[in-house]
């Protein structure tokens, strides 16, 4: 295999996993010792590698910066990790059309800095913004709570280019905001963990940078928070981020962020309206510095992605804190109120964390509790995905149509795909 890869890419583009030594110890369990990591300089050379894998019966998994490698559902069954980090070209920033087309190996934060020169940005807040590649964010559907206003990656994605399982480079979607032609294949690729194809290029919506940003927090007991939450939802206020936050101490709060005009901020109208709601709900109101989402969880943290019925979000975080305290685990969490989707960050003994996750899954009747970042030893004790839908057969059919020979069959996605 190595000699074949050297003939395709040259020796400098190939690294054996066994040669990594002690680097990235929290990720090593997800890197089969016999596998190779290849870094093709161009998408065309990446396609040639996949075409070779198709002929030789090798299994391939896309890899960006590796920040979310431990989000896989288990030990991947792969021969090659195809690293996309050399694909960093911004192909077309159509500022007037508010779109950007770029290769996916670019670091997310680096792309944001380039767009900011034109007064624009991608309205998303994935984890590991400093180091994660755009392709990794899309492949794992890594959204933060800005989705309350701007939607998820699937909503912002207009078109993609990707490597098919036979090594062909193909496109889906386009470069315009109103594109309705054809089957929406790009939305299948976003969040598929590389199980259907390898993204090489993507076109995204961009937005003007906000003129002004203001962030407020409301504190109080659970009953007061529930009252305030109902009042905020019934109001005409339009926060871009509207989160329920559980702090490690067990304190709950509402966190709201507004993107607006400087004149609105200067008038004080926004603060006055929030103050009226806070007073009526017996909550305390505090103006905060805009946080900016640069959350980089530590390697030892266990990360859950939770999906709750929105009206159960408050009760869910209360239950999570109670169970975490009972099992002597540390916990913090953030949930986007309107969608009921968020993340929980845990520390604790492996056996206690397993109990906590099982207990939370039992409590969540409608929704899911997906185990993202975690040691393999914990993922081996339970199903990481907690998939409760009825579309698994449809997913398998799609997998068969798009990857009949299993080139992208790492076995570490939902249902072993």
Short recap of the structure:
This protein is α+β, with helices and mostly antiparallel strands.
How would you describe this protein?
The protein has helices spanning 2-9, 43-56, 108-116, 134-139, 147-150, 153-156, 185-189, 222-234, 262-267, 269-281, 313-326, 350-363, 376-379, 392-402, and strands at 14-16, 36-38, 60-63, 80-83, 90-94, 99-103, 120-121, 157-163, 169-173, 198-205, 207-208, 212-219, 241-246, 252-260, 284-288, 302-308, 330-336, 341-347, 367-371. By secondary structure, it is α+β, with helices and mostly antiparallel strands. Among the domains are: 2-84, Uridine Diphospho-n-acetylenolpyruvylglucosamine Reductase, domain 2 (2-Layer Sandwich); 90-208, Uridine Diphospho-n-acetylenolpyruvylglucosamine Reductase, domain 3; 212-288, Alpha-Beta Plaits, CATH 3.30.70.260. Strand 17 (330-336) and strand 18 (341-347) form a beta hairpin. The protein is globular, with a radius of gyration of 22 Å. The mean pLDDT is 91. One of its GO terms (molecular function) is FAD binding.
Task: Please write out the topology.
Layout: H1 2-9, E1 14-16, E2 36-38, H2 43-56, E3 60-63, E4 80-83, E5 90-94, E6 99-103, H3 108-116, E7 120-121, H4 134-139, H5 147-150, H6 153-156, E8 157-163, E9 169-173, H7 185-189, E10 198-205, E11 207-208, E12 212-219, H8 222-234, E13 241-246, E14 252-260, H9 262-267, H10 269-281, E15 284-288, E16 302-308, H11 313-326, E17 330-336, E18 341-347, H12 350-363, E19 367-371, H13 376-379, H14 392-402
Parallel strand pairs: 2-4, 3-4
Antiparallel strand pairs: 1-2, 5-6, 6-10, 7-11, 8-9, 8-10, 12-14, 12-15, 13-14, 13-17, 16-18, 16-19, 17-18
Helix pairs in contact: 8-10, 11-12
């Amino acid at each position: 295999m190595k000699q074949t890869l050297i003939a395709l890419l040259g020796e400098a583009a190939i690294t054996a996993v066994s040669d990594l030594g002690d680097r990235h110890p929290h990720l090593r369990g997800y890197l089969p010792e016999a596998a190779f990591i290849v870094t093709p300089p161009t998408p065309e050379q990446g396609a040639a590698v996949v075409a070779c894998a198709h002929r030789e019966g090798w299994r391939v998994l896309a890899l960006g910066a590796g920040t979310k490698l431990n989000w896989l559902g288990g030990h991947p069954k792969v021969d090659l990790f195809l690293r996309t980090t050399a694909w960093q070209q911004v192909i077309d920033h159509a500022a007037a059309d508010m779109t950007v087309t770029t290769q996916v190996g670019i670091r997310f934060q680096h792309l944001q800095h380039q767009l900011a020169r034109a007064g624009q940005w991608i309205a998303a807040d994935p984890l590991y913004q400093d180091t994660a590649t755009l392709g990794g964010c899309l492949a794992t559907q890594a959204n933060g709570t800005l989705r309350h206003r701007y939607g998820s990656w699937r909503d912002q994605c207009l078109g993609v280019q990707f490597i098919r399982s036979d090594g062909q480079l193909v496109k889906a979607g386009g470069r315009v905001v109103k594109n309705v032609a054809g089957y929406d294949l790009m939305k299948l690729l976003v969040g598929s963990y590389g199980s259907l194809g390898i993204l090489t290029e993507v076109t995204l919506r961009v937005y003007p940078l906000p003129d002004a940003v203001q962030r407020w927090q409301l504190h109080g007991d659970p009953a007061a928070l529930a009252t305030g939450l109902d009042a905020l939802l019934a109001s005409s206020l339009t926060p871009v981020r509207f989160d329920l936050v559980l702090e490690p101490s067990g304190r709950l709060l509402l966190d709201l962020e507004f993107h607006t005009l400087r004149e609105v901020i200067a008038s004080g109208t926004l603060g006055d309206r929030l103050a009226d709601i806070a007073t009526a709900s017996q909550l305390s109101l505090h103006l905060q510095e805009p946080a900016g989402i640069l959350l980089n969880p530590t390697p030892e943290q266990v990360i859950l992605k939770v999906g709750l019925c929105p009206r159960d979000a408050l009760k869910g975080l209360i239950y999570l804190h109670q169970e975490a305290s009972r099992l002597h685990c540390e916990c913090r969490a953030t949930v986007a109120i309107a969608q009921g989707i968020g993340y929980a960050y845990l520390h604790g003994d492996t056996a206690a964390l397993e109990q906590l996750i099982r207990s939370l899954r039992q409590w969540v009747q409608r929704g899911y509790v997906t185990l993202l970042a975690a040691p393999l030893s914990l993922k081996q004790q339970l199903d990481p995905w907690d998939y409760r839908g009825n579309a698994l057969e449809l997913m398998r059919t799609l997998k068969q149509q798009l990857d009949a020979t299993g080139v992208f069959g790492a076995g570490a996605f939902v249902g072993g795909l």
